[in-house]
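From: lab user (bench 3)
To: helpdesk
Subject: output format question, protein + zinc ion

Hello, I'm new to running complex predictions and I'm not sure whether the block I got back is the full result or only part of it. Here's what I submitted:
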Amino acid sequence: MFEDSEHLLGALYYRGRSRGVPIPRIRKLETMVWEERWHPLRREWVIVSSHRNDRPWRGETVDEGRDTDVPYDADCYLCPRNVRISGKTNPDYRSVYVFDNDHPCVGPDSPAVPEPAPSVYQSRRADGMARVVCYTPRHDLTLAELPQPEIVRLLETFREQYLELGDRPEVRYVLAFENKGEVVGVSNPHPHAQIYATNFVFRTIETEIQASTEHLAEHGRPLFRDVIDAEESDGRRVVVQQGSALSFVPYFARYPYETYIAPRETHASVAEVSADELSDLAEVLRRTLVRMDNLWRMSFPYVMVLHQAPTDGARYDGFHFHIQVHPPLRKPGLLKYLGGPEIGAGNFLNDTAPEQKAAELRAVPETHYRAVRA
Ligand SMILES: [Zn+2]
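Helpdesk reply: Thanks, we reran it on our side. This is the complete output you should expect:
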């Protein structure tokens, strides 16, 4: 299964028996690169971690939306009591379980940069910390199927990680995210998120900070607060409202079904959200994800990201913590492909109306289809 996972220079990846035609395989080149490289045209850091090409991969084919029915999988490196690739054994955990990623893209073991980058280039150590957050010992569940108290516990874990990792001197940003579904490259169906605590602030967050700071200075109100007001006064794109939290497909959505989940009040991070707000936020997140799963009666793939302020010690007044969900599918089995405008030039074409997509999510029931079937 891992026969082709050599480190290859130049991102070339040959499969030896493609269509019966023998393709010469490039033999292993010992050019391991693990560092950060500055992209001078986009003005952002790229993490180069070629050693991660060897990490375990369970998503051999793209077969999105497949449900898993076994609560424990002896071959899963995230299930309780199982041995991971590093030789470490998972404890018999009963709730959320966090551990250091065995294949970190950033970390304390990253090597010193061997030589100064040539010419206009810049590089530096890929310092930081990468962790894995298992939501539950249950291999067969997804975030949408967890009871609300377990989602509260997960959000509390993200808070603890934000504070702990953000306190490290080398860490400027704590990025918590979940890639869900083989179609977005997840290598194991066991419900889990990842945390990249990096020595730089991610580009999208930087842009959000700049927009939020300028809006606050100009209008005296947080930008995201005005976005929420606009969504609630229009109402057509709101998906779920409960107490102090809501979810909506934003007016400016780039993906079909792109959805934001947020507390109404402005807090720079999950660390500043009160217990009552966290409870509402967890329930809105749960109800929103159930609606996504029920839409096509399949496990809905997505990329979910927590947008929080950096942890570099500066003040970020006006930055509004929220969760973004970016689903890659337009219809079952039909990807929204990223092409010239998106990949090549950075601006999105959305072929769907956000108002229509929000209406579809509102039209489905809030009892998860697998709970009904059970
Ligand atoms: Zn598992």
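A quick orientation on your result: Helices lie at 148-166, 203-219, 223-234, 275-296, 340-345, 354-363, 369-373. Let us know if anything else is unclear.
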